[in-house]
Amino acid sequence: RPSIVRLVNYVRIPSKGIMLSRKNILKRDGHQCQYCSTTRGPLTVDHVLPRYLGGRDSWENMVCACQRCNNKKGDRLPEEVNMALRRKPKAPTRIHFIRDFIGIHHHSWRPYLFLKNEQPEELLWPTR
């Protein structure tokens, strides 16, 4: 029995990208504060560059933050309050959201889903 389904004819589907939303920011960041790494307590979305300083709603400017860190940072830059991001925020790739939607999969699928033997956090933030 084959464990992989092979597509014989490729059907081009236009990519609309992943919608920027609170839910998707939290998913991208693994429901983990990007300042202190906690997964406990209420999580919020923080603008790294505050909106009043020209920060926009974008994948590169929004991160998951616990309430404590978000309150500590306030309307300032992280450097102004001696805080640092765990990782530079960026738009997630579509394959990682597909992987999360599929859920548990057989280990033999990994090469075809572009998944290595990495932890989920490393999959969302691939290092190149």
Brief rundown of the structure:
The chain has 128 residues and is α+β, with helices and mostly antiparallel strands. The protein has helices at residues 22-28, 67-73, 94-102, 120-124, and strands at 43-47, 62-66. It folds into two domains: 19-90, DNA Binding (I), subunit A (Orthogonal Bundle), CATH 1.10.30; 93-128, no CATH class.
What does this structure look like?
By secondary structure, the chain is of the alpha+beta class. It has two domains: 72 residues, DNA Binding (I), subunit A (Orthogonal Bundle), CATH 1.10.30.50; 36 residues, no CATH class. It is 22% helix and 8% strand. It has a two-stranded antiparallel sheet with strand order 1-2. It starts with 21 loop residues before the first helix and ends with a helix. The C terminus is likely disordered.
What is the overall shape?
elongated
Distance between the termini: 35 Å
Computed structural class = alpha+beta
Radius of gyration: 17 Å
- Number of DSSP strands? 2
Give the strand order of the largest sheet, numbering strands 1, 2, ... along the chain: 1-2
Provide the low-confidence segments as ranges. Answer: 118-128
Q: How many strands, which pairing sense, and closed or not: the largest β-sheet?
A: 2 strands, antiparallel
What tags apply to this protein structure?
128 residues, DNA Binding (I), subunit A, two-stranded antiparallel sheet, 4 helices, alpha+beta, disordered C terminus, 8% strand, elongated
